[in-house]
Specification:
336 residues; alpha+beta; three-stranded parallel β-sheet; 11 strands; 19% strand; globular; binds flavin-adenine dinucleotide
Length: 336
């Protein structure tokens, strides 16, 4: 049986923010509804069952793509399809464009929004299936003795779920900022990298927004010919699937050397994960394609897989190597 709720339209984002702050746990914004309608129907660990849903896409000026110079500003209610189809995003934030095109199916991309994709809860089947776990009312992770073939190989325990948002991973590498509106009408800026709490410290929280806070915009400084990147994802099925492992990388050609390497993995740790050994091996070295394979071979050095998910280690090494090489080939100028 469906659970009843009220769909309440408001005129501005601040009205939405105030409404949510005035009704703690009762009201929430709805983007495409792919997540929140599930929560309304069958709430599971860490979710609430809101009675009032406020459609954010119907509020003016929430779905825009503004580019100026190398700056890009994205309205939080943009659909994933709008991001995938944008020339400005392709030109200035190539990894984000690739990540958007890799999300789910055309239907999911047409319905899901930018903010909704970032704020989806982890796709762990125990967490979402209502099992008692470290991130609900329990202390252990059922995946450890259960079916953990899709779970973490880095930083696992007590929670072994994996980072799941394709758009979020690209935005980590691009060092994007969230513009957040609070109920008083004030705004604050926070790196996307800080949106996800560490489940070791804060197991019951899935994001760091305060009650009533709304993500209004994502802002990023774009890439150039000398500063480029890529997003790649491996799935079990050819299409319509979450990542077994994904990678987003951005780096800079600084006077013929590797600089500002931003490398993040999805699908392999509870939060977006940087294999530091790879970054350390390459940083400040002369730009040389032949160094990339050796650096990538360190991508799983500190992996600690569970018995059934060690296969992800070789995926990670190959994926990192490909991403580094694809990025290298995109740099417009390379040393002889
Ligand atoms: C079959 C399937 C396949 C999928 N495959 C992938 C995949 O390959 N890769 C991937 O990354 N994802 C994938 N997803 C996840 C999907 O992209 C997300 O479920 C979707 O993007 C959520 O967006 P939404 O707008 O529908 O969220 P909603 O359900 O509308 O909202 C989700 C949450 O975010 C909150 N929220 C929404 N907007 C804001 C805002 N502006 N400020 C503050 N809070 C807000 C809501 O209150 C709610 O709590 C898949 C989902 C399905 C069902």
């Amino acid at each position: 049986m469906s659970y009843p709720f009220l769909l309440e339209k408001v005129r501005t984002l601040q009205d939405a923010s105030r409404r949510i702050a005035d009704s703690p746990g009762k009201a929430a914004v709805i983007g495409g509804g792919l997540e929140i309608l599930d929560e309304v129907d069958s709430p599971t660990a860490g979710s609430t069952r809101p009675d009032i849903l406020i459609p954010i896409g119907q509020i003016p000026d929430t779905s825009y793509i503004h580019s100026r110079g190398d700056q890009l500003r994205l309205g939080a209610a943009l659909t994933i399809a709008e991001i995938a189809e944008s020339d400005a995003v392709r030109r200035l934030a190539w990894p984000l464009s690739e990540a958007a095109a890799a999300v789910g199916s055309p239907q999911i991309r047409a319905q899901g929004t930018l903010a909704g994709n970032l704020l989806q809860r982890p796709r762990c089947w125990y967490l979402r299936g209502g099992f008692s776990c470290h991130r609900s009312d329990g202390s252990d992770c059922p995946a450890v003795t259960g079916d953990h073939r899709y779970h973490a190989i880095f930083d696992g325990g007590p929670c072994w779920s994996v980072y799941h948002s394709d758009l979020g991973l690209a935005l980590h590498a691009l060092n994007a900022q969230l513009i957040i509106l609070n109920p008083d009408g004030k705004e604050r800026e926070m790196p996307v990298r800080d949106l996800y709490p560490d489940p070791k410290k804060d197991p019951l929280k899935f994001h760091t927004l305060q009650p009533g806070e709304i993500n209004r915009e994502i802002r990023l400084a774009g890439l150039s010919n000398r500063y480029t990147g890529t997003f790649l994802k491996i799935t079990e099925r050819g299409a319509f699937d979450f990542a077994l492992a994904s990678v987003a990388v951005v780096y800079n050609n600084f006077h013929g050397r590797f600089k500002n390497i931003q490398l993040f993995l999805g699908g392999v740790a509870p939060r977006a994960y940087t294999p530091e050994a790879v970054v350390k091996t390459l940083s400040h070295q002369k730009l040389d394609r032949s160094l990339l394979a050796a650096a990538a071979s360190h991508a799983a050095d500190v992996a600690a897989p569970l018995p059934e998910n060690g296969y992800k280690m070789s995926i990670v090494k190959n994926l990192v190597r490909r991403a580094l090489e694809v990025t290298y080939d995109k740099l417009s100028w390379k040393p002889d």
